[in-house]
């Protein structure tokens, strides 16, 4: 008998470095319609909805990385219609780190 499948978000959190180098990219990446805000992160790595992630966000020319936890709430797969960039939308957690990220962005 096979063991029941575990939800993807019960596994250890993945660490995902995010480098946003210019203001235009920041505006394109920010997802204000998500409760608490979030970012679209271009990636070809596979994630599932509900996966918990630990983002290390490097904004513009800042030397300091913003650590924030979040959850995958949006997936744009490779080869998406309209030549859209593959990636994931990550909703920031309701935590002090998430609040700091929202304020900085």
Automatic annotation (TrEMBL):
<protein>
    <submittedName>
        <fullName>Type IV fimbriae assembly protein</fullName>
    </submittedName>
</protein>
<dbReference type="GO" id="GO:0035438">
    <property type="term" value="F:cyclic-di-GMP binding"/>
</dbReference>
<dbReference type="Pfam" id="PF07238">
    <property type="entry name" value="PilZ"/>
</dbReference>
<dbReference type="InterPro" id="IPR009875">
    <property type="entry name" value="PilZ_domain"/>
</dbReference>
<feature type="domain" description="PilZ">
    <location>
        <begin position="16"/>
        <end position="99"/>
    </location>
</feature>
């Amino acid at each position: 008998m096979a063991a029941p499948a575990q939800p993807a978000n019960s596994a250890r959190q993945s660490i995902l470095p995010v480098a946003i180098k210019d203001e235009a990219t920041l505006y394109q990446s920010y997802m204000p319609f998500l409760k608490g805000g979030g970012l679209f992160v271009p990636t070809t790595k596979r994630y599932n909805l509900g996966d918990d992630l630990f983002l290390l966000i490097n904004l513009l020319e800042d030397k300091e990385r913003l650590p924030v936890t979040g959850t995958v709430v949006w997936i744009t797969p490779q080869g998406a219609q309209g030549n859209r960039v593959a990636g994931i939308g990550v909703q920031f957690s309701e935590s002090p780190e998430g609040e700091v990220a929202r304020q900085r962005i």
